[in-house]
Design goal:
Layout (H helix, E strand, L loop, with lengths): L2 E6 L4 H12 L6 E7 L4 E7 L2 H11 L6 E7 L14 E2 L5 E9 L2 H10 L9 H16 L3 H9 L4 E9 L5 E7 L4 E4 L4 E4 L11 E4 L4 E6 L3 E6 L5 E2 L4 E2 L15 H7 L1 H9 L3 E2 L4 E2 L2 H4 L2 H5 L3 E6 L1 H18 L3 E5 H4 L10 E7 L5 H12 L3 E6 L5 H5 L2 E4 L12 H21 L4 H22 L2 H11 L4 E6 L4 H15 L2 E6 L16 E6 L5 H12 L4 E7 L4 H5 L2 E5 L8 H18 L18
Parallel strand pairs: 18-19, 18-20, 20-21, 21-22, 23-24, 23-25, 25-26, 26-27
Antiparallel strand pairs: 1-4, 1-10, 2-3, 2-4, 5-6, 6-7, 7-8, 8-12, 9-10, 9-11, 11-15, 12-13, 13-14, 16-17
Helix pairs in contact: 3-4, 4-5, 7-14, 7-15, 10-14, 10-17, 15-20, 16-20, 17-20
Bound molecules: 6-O-phosphono-alpha-D-glucopyranose.
Length: 615
């Protein structure tokens, strides 16, 4: 993980780097640092803690002037978060400076070799090994920095996005990528380097995304040259026009990004089906599906791979695909799938779901499936991300940038895309009648408005949150389509409030969790009228007789659950299949309010990162 930013051009680099790091803090926030060339020397300031701590520290440590600089916000892998392990790292001579996102797997053997040649190390990081390796190559081979980086990287096993410069030649920054994202913003005689485009969006809309195994030498006044790291061949830069706006990555009056993103869901869902769901014509248009219809229709099965919240969206999709399109579906954690020698054939379709499009395990699962001949389809949010590029075809969720670490609008838009796909395939297979198909289109089109209505329970949910904020455990129960939502609700609470929570299929409660229930245990039960309602009511009764506190998520106008539950939160009526898009909303708000009441850092929960680019 980690976020990296760099600047080379006529402006002051420091404010661009600091603001950029703040936007990239979702990638890691346990330490931060900056290195600037101030016209005469290299100035480095770094610290354990957040970018705000770095600002305070650099205030005292450095002059903050210079128009070449690099900065880093860290999510620790090798070495605990402390000042010394923070990036940037400097080579033994003091000339070269580096920031790095990724892991150098063979760093230990490289380190021993460098130690035997007299190098010393201050930190426990793999990155300090890499910068000294580059320095060693530069000296031994008597080559320029770019060449030294290239030779060094060819000795490295692992993943990286790096930016390096030499204080003796500060008009040049060398960058490279393998497995970790890296974008270059192209301004007028200035260049911005960053893990994603958000740090430079107000300066330029022109960006180059480096591909894996590519490096670039960026020279002030002279431009950018991209080469393949392995064979040194030149690559033609492909400049993309960015669609992102500054407003999209700002809080816009909300206290937290998470809350803003929860409230953005009506728009995000609409943006996701716009142009695809054509109700009047009674069709669904998705180029990625149309172009590959045969692959889907001839598939023996669909395998869905994902991590975290995206995996929960995959579980919902399993129910939807099997129900509507009658195609067998298996859902796998990408991290398990890739390591367990799975049986994959050319008749399998693999769907990879990822908000960031950068999750290392999901990416590796895709590569594995491709190597076995499977057709791979991506459902990503970030345009141009590694997963979007690595898959044969795909469909974007148009959620807009999701910055809060706890995923919200990505989840509901993923379900929206997957529902559209299932409906389209069901129509092609003839497993849904044309009237049912129309009814589903109509209902899906009404979901944003119903999400809007669900958001109106916000104040009521805040009040419930206040009652339960101090408990140690929560249980979430749901059945059918809402079992994955129970998992997602529990995950949200764990992630941001650090309260232990478990999601369970309601009927499984009797096989274990029931032992935990007493008068101190709040149990969130998703009990919408359509989904096995009577069975859920029985489950609620079982909880009640053990004195558990029941928070019911119910359909508007519900009577039965209302009588039994301690609290109910109403959502509008919809089809069972679409209900996860609504039942999720109160669970997001519940976790949000509990975390805020507990004074937790909602947008940057401890130990987590938004984009997990390490395996
Ligand atoms: C991290 C994030 C989660 C996310 C998961 C998968 O754990 O904190 O919010 O669901 O990664 O990320 P992806 O970008 O692949 O959806």
């Amino acid at each position: 993980m980690c976020g990296i930013v760099g600047y080379i051009g006529p402006r002051e680099a420091y404010p661009i780097i600091i603001e950029g790091l703040k936007r990239l803090e979702y990638r890691g926030y346990d330490s931060a640092g900056v290195a600037l060339f101030d016209g005469t020397d290299l100035k480095v300031s770094k610290t354990k803690g957040k970018v705000a701590d770095l600002e305070k520290r650099s205030e005292q440590e450095i002059t903050k002037h210079g128009s070449v600089g690099i900065g880093h916000t860290r999510w620790a892998t090798h070495g605990v978060p402390n000042d010394v392990n923070s990036h940037p790292h400097i080579s033994n001579s003091g000339d070269l400076v580096i920031i790095h996102n990724g892991i150098i797997e063979n760093y230990e053997s490289l380190k021993q070799e460098l130690i035997s040649r007299g190098y010393t190390f201050k930190s426990d990081t793999d990155t300090e090994v890499l910068i000294n390796l580059i320095e060693d190559v530069k000296k031994q081979e008597k080559v320029k920095l770019g060449k030294a980086v290239q030779i060094a990287l060819n000795q490295v096993v692992g993943a990286y996005a790096i930016a390096v410069f030499d204080k003796n030649k500060p008009e040049e920054v060398v960058i490279a990528r393998l497995g970790s994202p890296l974008a270059v913003g192209i301004g007028e005689d200035e260049f911005f380097i960053a893990s994603d485009a958000s740090p430079f969006i107000e300066y330029t809309k022109d960006a180059i995304y480096l591909e894996d195994e590519e490096m670039a030498i960026i020279r002030f006044h002279k431009g950018i040259k991209i080469r393949k790291i392995k064979d040194d061949s030149l690559v033609d830069p492909y400049v993309q026009k960015l669609q992102m706006n500054l407003e999209e990555i700002e809080k816009g009056g909300f206290d937290h990004f998470m809350l803003k993103e929860i409230y953005e869901q009506p728009k995000a869902i609409t943006d996701t089906y716009r142009g695809r769901l054509l109700r009047e014509e009674a069709i669904i248009k998705m180029a990625g599906i149309e172009d590959n219809m045969k692959k889907f229709l001839n598939a023996d099965r669909i395998i869905i791979v994902a991590c975290g919240t995206s995996w929960h969206a995959g579980l919902v999709a399993e129910y939807i695909f099997e129900d509507l399109a009658r195609i067998p579906v298996e859902v796998e954690y990408a991290s398990e799938f890739r390591y367990r020698n799975p049986i994959i054939t050319e008749k399998d379709v693999l769907i990879a779901i990822s908000q960031s499009g950068e999750t290392a395990d999901t990416l590796a699962a895709i590569k594995l499936a491709k190597s076995k001949g499977a057709f791979v389809f991506g459902v990503c949010n970030v345009v141009g991300s590694s997963i979007a590029r690595e898959t044969h075809a795909g469909a974007y969720t148009h959620a807009g940038p999701e910055i809060g670490v706890a995923s919200t609008k990505a989840f509901t838009t993923q379900i929206t895309v997957l529902t559209l796909m299932a409906l389209r395939l069901a129509r092609a297979k003839g497993t849904i009648s044309s009237s049912d198909f129309r009814r589903h289109l109509l209902e899906l089109e009404m979901i944003p408005q119903k999400v809007e209505e669900s958001l109106k329970s916000d104040a009521h949910i805040k009040m419930i949150s206040d009652i339960y904020k101090d408990v140690g455990n929560f249980l979430y129960l749901g059945r059918g389509y809402n079992f994955p939502v129970a998992l997602e609700g529990a995950l949200k609470l764990k992630e941001i409030s650090y309260i232990h929570a478990e999601g369970y299929p309601a009927a499984e409660m009797k096989h274990g969790p029931i032992a935990l229930i007493d008068e101190n245990m709040p149990i969130v039960v998703i009990a919408t009228r359509k989904g096995h309602y009577e069975k859920i009511v029985s489950n609620i009764q079982e909880i009640k007789s053990r004195k558990g506190k029941i928070i019911g998520i119910v359909t508007k106008g519900d009577v039965q659950v209302k009588e039994l539950a301690d609290h109910v939160i109403e959502i509008p009526e919809t089809f069972e299949l679409l209900s996860p898009l609504l039942t999720t909303i109160p669970l997001q708000l519940l976790s949000y309010h509990i975390a805020v009441l507990l004074d937790k850092n909602v947008d940057q929960p401890r130990n987590l990162a938004k984009s997990v680019t390490v395996e």
